[in-house]
Amino acid sequence: MSDLADLTLRQFADGRRRGDFTSEEVTRAVLERIARVEPTVQAYLRVDAEAALEAARRADRAAPAGDRPALRGAPIALKDNLCTRGVPTTCASRILEGFVPPYDAAVVERLRAAGAVFVGKTNLDEFAMGSSTENSAFGATRNPWDPSTIPGGSSGGSAAAVAAGECLAALGSDTGGSIRQPAACCGIAGLKPTYGRVSRYGLVAFASSLDQIGPMARTVEDCAILLEAIAGHDPRDSTSVPGAVPPYAARLGDGRLEGLTVGIVREFFAAGLDAEIECAVREAVRTLEERGARVREVSLPHGKHSVAVYYILATAEASSNLARYDGVKYGFRAAGARDLIDQYRRSRSEGFGPEVRRRIMLGTYALSSGYYDAYYRKAQQVRTLILNDFTAAFREVDLLAGPTAPTAAFRIGEKSDDPLQMYLSDIFTISVNLAGVPGLSLPCGFTAAGLPIGLQLIGPAFGEETLLRAGHAYQLATDWHTRRPPLVMATGGAT
Ligand code: GLN
């Protein structure tokens, strides 16, 4: 291990139990890494160094045993659309300027109770709308593997922070791919749980029927540890599902996949998929086969409509959810308004960035009387067809495998003037949210240019155990997840 900032959660928990290091030492290493790489990466909107060190010391004083000892004292980053009591939560938007939540999101509460140390709040596309983290009102985050490229989005800050050793793991949110696509771009693991698996209480809503919070970490095993801590029923989110949370981390298995059938989605290997990505993903599927899995081809015939369906439903829900930002109740209020309507108009025009305004307009249009049936209702119907495709596929196979994104990270600025091109970054992830099923992205290689490639595994509803077991088996057989970005080395990580 070159540096304590590069530990996995598992290594952290084991090492701390053995007394190899304290939480305070690891937290200091993370803060030192932040000081060194943050001028380039810009993953954080806010770093709470003093509070983190204080929490680390508290964790060190606490008895090592506890209900979730794995996370006690572990430095974790939070995407800045998760409410944190007493700590500003911006959604990377000017409109939330000055907003300090009086409560913690359910996932933050749970991690706090587990003894996690919060390092800070990470950058995102404004209100989680985007695939590159360029839509942040506070500047873009850069990919630690190549700072001239995007880290993916919208959870690009969390992904870059994990990849660069600026935390041991992080939480993100995924409405159409925002955990998995940045995980793929930054060479880490990211899991979008089944809709209802994790409480959305305290997650600033983007598209409520699609949003889900999930773990982003260096390994699949670490995703299992984090998921176990944040999952479970919460009466404050009426879509959260009752029932026990499986001990995901204890059920990762021994790396053998006999009895598992993996489906290759024919449509995911069509035109538009970069050849290097296709090659790496096919190789990854062969590795799963070597571990004992059977592989067969399946079809998701309605998947081709998923981007269109998503951009009607997600924008419709967003236009409704974002109506609450009126310059009165939260944060930013424009100056010089003539009357109330003018105040709404000015506050919203000045407070929201261009992508958010575009989506509010699209969504409002799709929901307007006269167009509702043609757009919104039709999109809901096609959403059901997409879900039915998944249900049919999961009668034949245990999980699906394919690419996470059609290309590796693109250059900053390359797609910012072309929203449609940007929207296509999520072509392989969006249908998973529409169907409400879980999806895991994990590193499966690098392009010739040295950029990470993501393998996506998709499971049936509440099939997280199977997904994690397959992903873990893949990581036992490969070492892509152990690579660190050149930036981390070049800036003097002690070896
Ligand atoms: N990139 C997609 C969008 O722009 C998905 C974002 C997300 O998952 N939050 O809406």
Short description:
The protein is 38% helix and 12% strand. The chain contains 16 helices and eleven strands.
Notable features of this structure?
495 residues, alpha/beta, 11-stranded mixed β-sheet, 16 helices, 38% helix, 12% strand, binds glutamine
Q: Can you walk through the features of this model?
A:
The protein is 38% helix and 12% strand. Strand 10 (439-446) and strand 11 form a beta hairpin. The radius of gyration is 21 Å and the shape is globular. It is α/β, with parallel strands linked by helices and 495 residues long. The model has no long low-confidence stretch (mean pLDDT 95). Strands 1-3-2-4-6-5-10-11-9-7-8 form an eleven-stranded mixed beta sheet, with helices on both faces. The N and C termini lie close together (8 Å).
Number of helices, where a helix is a run of at least 4 consecutive DSSP H or I residues: 16
Number of strands: 11
Describe the main β-sheet briefly.
11 strands, mixed
Beta strand %:
5-15%
- Low-confidence runs of at least 5 consecutive residues: none
